[in-house]
Amino acid sequence: MNDLKSGSNLEKVLKAGHFAFTGECGPPKGANVVHLKEKIAHLKGVVDAVNVTDNQTAVVRMSSWAASTIMLHEGVEPNFQMVCRDRNRLAMMSDILGVYAMGVRNMLCLSGDHQRFGNHPEAKNVYDIDSIQLIALVKKMRDEGKFLNDEVIDVPPRIFIGAAANPFAEPFEFRVHRLALKIAAGADFIQTQCIYNMDRFRAFMKRVVDLGLHEKCYILAGVTPMKSVGMAQYMAKQVPGMDVPDSVIARLKGAGKGKAAEEGIKFAIEQIHEFKEMEGVAGVHFMAIEWEHRVAEIAKQAGVLPRPKVD
Amino acid sequence: MIVADRKPLEEILEMIKDANKILLVGCKGCVTVCNVGGTKEVGILASSLKIARKKEGRPLEVDEKTLERQCDPEYVEQIRKSVDQYDAVISMACGVGPQFLSEAYPQQRFLPAVNTTFFGGAVQHGVWSERCAGCGTCVIHFFDGMCPIARCSKSLLHGPCGGSSGGKCEISKEVDCVWDMIVRKKMEQGRLADLATLKPAKDWRTARDGGPRKSVREELVQ
Q1: Residue A136: its chain B contacts at CB < 8 A?
Q2: Contact A174 B187 (CB under 8 A)
Q3: For residue B39, what pLDDT is reported?
């Protein structure tokens, strides 16, 4: 398969037509490598690649590139996340070369949560380029072998380029157009925001399929199991761009005391089953959020194990 | 115009704690329009400072003067005769004012009474809102006269981001999402295709990122 863009496991799985299953792992708030390795171990063999978040929610953590290299050492493929909030174009290109040199082959290009959310709201923000320009930058480095200034790169990075899409942010009608822009910029795969409003997601995917976007890019549907009624209510009210219908909250409440988490998992598994059949969906991005130890059992019940091995 | 907010009285008192006689200089430019540093506000601050210092038992002598503009050497000259009589001079102009004064009178001490905030305008009586970031390369023709550099919290050239909700920015429900406004206007006018092109990375050299800026108009330079 010489026509692979990066040769990453995720790329090979998707290109071979398998239903992909990716995970997520937040680096520690410190240099606790032992804890990080424990979280990674839970995901080994269970997912095709693991997103390594980049100071998510603008809270300082171990750098995503360093955690990605630890993951590589543990035999798990990282999907290195990079946000536009903290780095200018010099730091971005430098880190892209750095992670590639260390063996990283997937990268997710994000705007990043504004620092006002985080634990250093006093910080200066950067936003030298935006997420769509970052996608175009990685593509230029890979396909043209050039830096943003057109200077030639001595050994360009071969990276499988990912981007995020939020089908639930507003204006809803425009979301699919922004997705199209990300694909035009060079995104090879998309991971969506956590999906709870299935009706809205079905409508979004219909637009995606009508425009043929699913043929230009692999779309992975985002799933996060609800752990409690409180979590669902928090996400519904406090997290911008998150769409949690009342019916989902009612379902968790209806499960009875102490059973909301199991109901949340049940809902997630139902979602994965539906995504496997949904036109245009190439896989699931499973964000367990500190529930890495439960991913294997959920994956098993969702029928996505064992993960395919593609040479 | 340039918009500013008055500094807290305590901060100003702290700056002049060693002074017994000061000059308070207002400006009839932007800070008069945004009600922070004109003749009226100079009078109010002068009274407040005097009352506070009287309470402390250390009366303060304050003279008041409001210049046509503090960002113009011609008007800055108007205090030359009196400037040395004071222990310190407080400017109520934007951040330009105390600097022009300081450059004109190197022997005197100049202090700011306001925090200069942004380029904007009054959206209603008593409320000002940012509109321009002074980036040096205007791009608002792409966005129907709305500026994502100044008004998007992330200065995105391809928005709105996933945090846009109900027409508001993810940072606060008090902040409008300019990208929501841009997209809706394009949709209403049937020109959504305008947003289908990729914008290259912005050249920030014309903004503050390229270093302090200067504008030279040769035909006016004598």
Answers
A1: 198
A2: yes
A3: 98
